[in-house]
TrEMBL record:
One of its GO terms (molecular function) is L-aspartate oxidase activity. Its EC number is 1.4.3.16. Its main location: cytoplasm. This is L-aspartate oxidase. Pathway: Cofactor biosynthesis; NAD(+) biosynthesis; iminoaspartate from L-aspartate (oxidase route): step 1/1. Gene3D superfamilies: FAD/NAD(P)-binding domain (3.50.50.60), Fumarate reductase/succinate dehydrogenase flavoprotein-like, C-terminal domain (1.20.58.100), Succinate dehydrogenase/fumarate reductase flavoprotein, catalytic domain (3.90.700.10). Catalyzes the oxidation of L-aspartate to iminoaspartate. Pfam families: FAD_binding_2 (PF00890), Succ_DH_flav_C (PF02910). It catalyses: L-aspartate + O2 = iminosuccinate + H2O2. Residues 412-486 form the Fumarate reductase/succinate dehydrogenase flavoprotein-like C-terminal domain. Transmembrane segments: none annotated. It is an enzyme of class 1 (oxidoreductase). GO terms for biological process: NAD+ biosynthetic process.
Length: 488
């Protein structure tokens, strides 16, 4: 198997695929993705993508709405870059075959309708079309079931990545540009809308490679996930509240303005849950219109026995979006040479202390395009693989049953501790307790690794621990509430 590519991309969500397609024919591209190519947050995005296309809207308004949502912790330069490139991003996706509805809709935090969607499963349509284009490009090789373990970095220059490939071998791959597009870290929490592949691997790898990270304390909790038994929790998107859905308690009483920013609504639901179940209802709205506008959500809830048109749907908040991440500039460059980051894993400065709904798909396209175009420029620069003699273990040592059990327990303990102690409402003493727990797990995982070697479960558990530690430390470093970081 060839282990030398012009460009390496880790992750096959909107950001990674956009970067790959932008690199296009300029060199050989390898995309490594953990499981199936469509296993991603992108594939689950329902609401849509924000775009400022004129027609009664203004760049300044989209910028202001984004900054307001981010509690003005955003980098204005990045927000402005996002908004000014949004029209081009929308048109680029259309060129890839995504059939957006002509009329945008309204979502919480946006002052006017500027959210473009296909049906109510916009992400799936985007993912499907981008993957089709990838499959048509002979320069791009997509490797599924290929888990990136660690970056190969020497003297602050990234030269490649170790990957656990399909037949259970760990192989180093080398390249002149490595792009992290691994998404967020929602699985570090017990309740999340993020798919199982989203375990913060890219962030953990970047931390180990000593890349600069920031704003990790700002984790956005979505106020309304369907409180069912499936994992991840099925999201009941902003769009429903945009269309007029109400949030009510067990007595049918409304207790919050549903169109307020996510963190405020999430906290209101969280508080209300202490005394009552919380439900979302659309029963007062036109039933035909609900079915027409939200056919997929309607069908999905039906598989759980609920009619969106008539029933009260039980809901809970859930970890949804990582606002911080690996620090990049407008070109997607990180603090490590030849290492780039795009999409949710990156901290571009767009989201500040809290993300405005529907800005993240947009960010994935805008930065994927920009990073791709920028990376092309290093195409002819002198590139040498500095050290082909990196050692790697060829055989993956199997875990014994006992360790599997231990690893599963560590994973679920981390998720529960994060939910209870570093979640929607935070207290300093509880976060200090959490930090202690995570430090102990890090030591325990190190011992398992030294004794038995690595495995997928061990890698994920180690990454979750790394990310849990980093989020908790960042939260402790910020003694006052701001945006999604809420202290009592
Ligand atoms: C339920 C849900 C609904 C959402 N709705 C919207 C919406 O309506 N509008 C909006 O703008 N945003 C929405 N978001 C957020 C948005 O979908 C994400 O922020 C965005 O899709 C992230 O794209 P990405 O390419 O950065 O990462 P992802 O789409 O998550 O892709 C990450 C990829 O990296 C791979 N990966 C991870 N670790 C490794 C590893 N170690 N090795 C190899 N591969 C790896 C994964 O398998 C995956 O392919 C939603 C998110 C969720 C979860």
């Amino acid at each position: 198997m060839k282990n030398n590519f012009d460009y390496i991309i880790i992750g096959s969500g909107i950001a990674g695929l956009t970067t790959a397609l932008t690199l296009g024919d300029s060199g050989s591209v390898a995309i490594f993705t953990k499981k199936n190519p469509s296993d991603s947050s992108t594939n689950l995005a329902q609401g849509g993508m924000a775009a400022m296309i004129g027609k009664g809207d203004q760049a300044d308004w989209h910028i202001e709405d984004t900054m307001k949502s981010g509690d003005f912790h955003n980098k204005k330069e990045a927000v402005s870059f996002l908004v000014k490139n949004s029209k081009e991003a929308l048109f680029w996706l259309k060129k890839q075959g995504v059939l957006f509805d002509a009329k945008p809709s309204l979502e919480a935090g946006h002052r006017l309708p500027r959210i473009f969607h296909t049906t109510d499963f916009t992400g799936k349509d985007i993912e499907k079309n981008l993957l089709k284009k990838i499959s048509e490009n002979k320069k791009i090789s997509l490797f599924k079931n290929s888990l990136a373990i660690d970056l190969i970095v020497k003297n602050n220059i990234c030269q490649g990545v170790f990957v656990l490939i399909e037949d259970n071998k760990i192989v180093p791959f080398f390249s002149k540009a490595i792009v992290l597009a691994t998404g967020g870290s929602g699985q570090v929490y017990q309740w999340t809308t993020n798919p199982e592949v989203v375990t913060g691997d890219g962030l953990a790898m970047a931390i180990r490679a000593k890349a600069k990270v920031a704003d990790l304390e700002f984790v956005q909790f979505h106020p309304t996930a369907f409180k069912g038994k499936s994992s991840p929790l099925f999201l009941l998107s902003e769009r429903l509240r945009g269309e007029g859905a109400k949030l009510v308690d067990k007595d049918g009483k409304q207790f919050v303005n549903e169109l307020l920013p996510r963190d405020i609504v999430a906290r209101a639901v969280f508080e209300k849950q202490k005394t009552s179940e919380v439900y979302l209802t659309m029963a007062h709205l036109d039933k035909k219109e609900i079915k027409r506008k939200l056919p997929n959500i309607y069908k999905k809830l039906l598989t759980h026995g609920y009619y969106l048109t008539h029933d009260r749907i039980p809901v809970t908040p859930a970890a949804h979006y990582q606002c911080g991440g690996v620090v990049t500039d407008l070109d997607g460059k990180t603090s490590v040479k030849n290492l780039f980051a795009v999409g949710e894993v990156a901290r571009t400065g767009v989201h500040g202390a809290n993300r405005l709904a529907s800005n993240s798909l947009l960010e994935g396209v805008v930065w994927g395009r920009r990073a791709g175009n920028n990376i092309k420029k290093i195409r002819n620069s002198k590139f040498e693989i500095r050290n082909k003699k990196f050692k790697y273990s060829k055989i993956l040592i199997k875990l014994n049953k006992n360790n599997k059990k231990i690893l599963n327990k560590i994973k679920s303990d981390i998720q529960k501790t994060m939910w209870e102690k570093v979640g929607i409402v935070r207290r300093k003493n509880e976060m200090l307790e959490a930090l202690k727990i995570f430090k102990n797990y890090k030591i325990q995982l190190g011992k398992i690794k030294a004794k038995d070697g690595v495995s997928l479960q061990l890698i994920e558990a180690s990454n979750l621990t790394e990310v849990a530690l980093a989020i908790t430390q960042a939260a402790l470093n910020r003694p006052k509430s701001l945006g999604a970081h809420y202290l009592v």
